[in-house]
Write a structure and sequence with these properties.
The chain contains 4 helices and 21 strands. The chain has helices at 2-13, 96-124, 130-153, 204-207; strands at 32-38, 40-56, 61-65, 70-75, 82-83, 88-94, 159-163, 168-173, 180-181, 186-192, 196-202, 215-220, 228-239, 246-251, 264-280, 285-286, 291-297, 300-312, 315-320, 327-331, 342-344. A hairpin with a 6-residue loop joins strand 13 (228-239) and strand 14. Helix 2 runs antiparallel to helix 3 (130-153).
Length: 347
């Protein structure tokens, strides 16, 4: 027992050789490796995404009707076809009875003219009274008015080619070749070129934030067409009973893509924005307290409580007690706690 105790005492009293002294712990072994970026200010615009379809503008469509009874002997266009002003649409053969009515109107006018001339000659010979002259003159006036009305209807033409009154798209055709139709029958509907709008549905709680004149970036829902930039022209004040959304109209002007009536579109309505501090989305963390991020001060992580705003293109607008002179941790922040030592990647 005494010999063992003596050996232990001697071992404790002997100085340790340099080879067995414990090496000091390097400072960076207790630090966390991170990646940082500078805090920067940027204009962040908030957008509302809405879906809808291309439709004709109210008043941009017209019904083409025939002025008299007849038969459609030739249709020269099809539904959906683009036509230019003056381009033929259809050929109408006038009903035989209508042509006969026009002939009667012509004969009546010729007879009334000759009767007036004869009555005036008799009056100069005192063989006709002035009242008879007035009656003959009225008969001629009535005959001329009736003939003018028939001419306006085109009743004197056995055939007539009806042409497009302006550049348009044939929206639909209500007749077929060979159909017999009555006077005033609508045969087709034209939509004026450039007379298109997009009707988008916006959630009722967001509709009050949309104003006429705001920019909308439109892209087709189906296909890979380019974007169309338009402006809000109208915000409706009622909920659409079919969609349960509030309609927002955007009139289409020129565009870099082919836009057709009925096309489904997705729109991003730009609500405007203001300069904000922005950080990459991974820089912002959340816990039971709320959103926060870390800035680096004197080689240590400093937790900053923040309020997040608009997100766009991988960036998040943040506000809080931020120091624009300190860098923000964008990677490695999940391992951090306030006050922990940090080192930049590559150091």
């Amino acid at each position: 027992m005494n010999k063992t105790f003596l050996l232990l005492a001697l071992a404790m009293a002997m100085p340790l050789s340099p080879s067995v002294v414990a090496a000091p712990v390097a400072d960076d072994e207790s630090s966390v490796q991170i990646k940082t970026e500078s805090l920067r200010s940027q204009m962040m615009s908030e957008t509302i995404t809405a879906y809808g379809a291309v439709t004709p503008i109210t008043g941009a469509t017209d019904n083409i009707s025939v002025p008299r009874s007849g038969q459609i002997v030739q249709l020269m266009v099809a539904a959906g076809q683009v036509v230019k002003r003056g381009e033929p649409l259809l050929t109408l053969a006038t009903e035989a009875t209508t042509v006969a009515t026009y002939g009667q109107a012509e004969s009546t006018e010729v007879y009334a003219r000759s009767e007036l001339k004869r009555t005036e000659e008799l009056a100069t010979q005192q063989l006709a009274t002035q009242s008879q002259v007035a009656a003959a003159r009225k008969a001629l006036t009535d005959a001329q008015a009736s003939l003018a009305a028939q001419r306006h209807l085109g009743a004197g033409m056995s055939r007539q080619t009806i042409t497009a009154p302006y550049d348009a798209v044939v929206a639909n055709i209500a007749v077929q070749q060979g159909d017999r139709i009555q006077s005033g029958t609508s045969v087709m509907q034209l939509m004026k070129s450039g007379g298109l709008q997009v009707l988008l549905g916006v959630q009722p709680e967001e509709a009050s934030r949309v104003r006429a004149g705001m920019t909308i970036r439109l892209v087709p829902v189906f296909g890979s067409g380019g974007a169309v930039i338009a402006k809000v022209s109208k915000v409706f004040g009622l909920i659409n009973p079919q969609t349960r959304l509030v309609d927002v109209a955007a009139q289409l002007q020129g565009s870099s893509v082919k836009v057709l009536s009925g096309m489904q579109m997705r729109g991003a309505i730009d609500l405007g924005g203001q300069p904000s501090w922005v950080v990459p989305r991974p820089a912002v963390l959340r816990d039971g307290v709320g959103a926060y991020l870390f800035q680096v001060q004197d080689g240590h992580a400093k937790r900053i409580e923040v309020t997040t705003g608009v997100e766009s293109n991988g960036l998040v607008a943040v506000s809080g007690h931020l120091d624009n002179k300190l860098k923000v941790v964008v990677l490695g922040n999940y391992e951090l706690k306030g006050g922990m030592a940090v080192r930049e990647a590559g150091e």
